[in-house]
Design a protein that fits this description.
Length: 236
C-alpha cells in the first residue's frame, strides 16, 4: 500500500450550513485540502476553494485565505501554504465575500530529506531461528545541523513472496501482517525492531523481500524510499 494515496484531496463544505446566502449570493465555500491536513517545514502546498451559491453553482467571486497564527504562512490570493515551525499546528480560514469558513488546522511536520537503510541489505535467518535481523532504517534531515527526524511515519511492506491473500502468507512482519507502519523516535528510527518471521505451521520460503518508504504530505516519496531488505531463510 502506498500511503501517499492517503494524501488525496478532501473536499468539504464549510461555512454557512443553512440555505441562506450573503448579499453577494454566497451560500457556502467549497474547500479542497489534503487529508490528512499536514505540511512539512519549508514545504509549500496549494489549497483550492470556490464560492458556491444557494443552488450549488460556482460563483465568480474570489476566495481569500487567512492564517490565524505564525506557525504557517498562506498567500491570501493563491492559497499557497508553507509550514514554518515544526511539531506544532496552525490554523487558517477562507473567506468569500462576507462568508467565512470553519477553521482548518494543519499539523507542521519536521522536514525529512532522506531515508537511510542501516545495516546489511541481505541477511540470512539460520535454521532453527524464527526472526530475521532488525530491518533498520532512519529518516534524516540535512540541517544545519544534520539530524534524525522525529515523529514521521515509515512504512514497511513485504513485497515478496507474493500471496493471493494475506491468509496464504508463509512469512509476515512482526506486526502480524504484510505491511507495518512505525512513527520515528528522536533517533529517526522505529520505536521497536521490525523484523520478518515465518508463519507457524507453514513451510519457510527460500527468501523474502521487504521495502521501507516514507512520504511527504501530498504523496511525494522522500528520497531513499523503496530501500530493499532481502532476507534468506536457511533450509533444513
Amino acid at each position: 500500500m502506498n500511503p501517499g494515496k492517503l494524501a488525496i484531496l478532501l473536499t468539504g463544505m464549510l461555512g454557512c450550513s443553512g440555505l441562506t446566502a450573503t448579499e453577494e449570493g454566497v451560500a457556502s465555500i467549497l474547500l479542497e485540502i489534503p487529508a490528512p491536513a499536514e505540511v512539512e517545514v519549508s514545504q509549500t502546498i496549494t489549497l483550492r476553494a470556490a464560492a458556491l451559491g444557494i443552488d450549488g453553482d460556482t460563483l465568480n467571486i474570489p476566495v481569500f485565505w487567512i492564517a490565524l497564527d505564525t506557525t504557517i504562512v498562506v498567500d491570501s490570493v493563491t492559497g499557497a501554504l508553507t509550514g514554518r515551525n515544526p511539531k506544532t499546528t496552525g490554523a487558517i480560514i477562507a473567506r468569500a465575500g462576507r462568508l467565512y469558513s470553519s477553521r482548518i488546522t494543519f499539523t507542521v511536520l519536521a522536514r525529512a530529506d532522506t531515508l537511510v537503510r542501516l545495516g546489511p541489505a541481505i541477511s540470512t535467518v539460520p535454521v532453527g531461528d524464527s526472526l530475521s535481523q532488525d530491518l533498520q532504517a532512519r529518516l534524516d534531515q540535512f540541517g544545519p545541523p544534520p539530524s534524525p527526524v522525529l515523529g514521521r511515519r515509515l512504512v514497511y511492506q513485504l513485497v515478496e513472496p507474493v500471496f493471493g491473500t494475506s491468509d496464504e502468507r508463509t512469512v509476515e512482519l512482526t506486526g502480524g501482517g504484510l505491511t507495518q507502519s512505525a512513527t520515528t523516535t528522536a533517533f529517526g528510527t522505529p520505536p521497536v525492531p521490525i523484523r520478518v518471521r515465518p508463519v507457524a505451521g507453514r513451510p519457510r520460503p527460500d527468501s523474502a523481500i521487504v521495502t521501507v518508504s516514507a512520504w511527504r504530505p501530498g504523496g511525494a516519496p522522500i528520497p531513499g524510499s523503496g530501500h530493499r531488505f532481502i532476507i534468506r531463510f536457511a533450509q533444513p
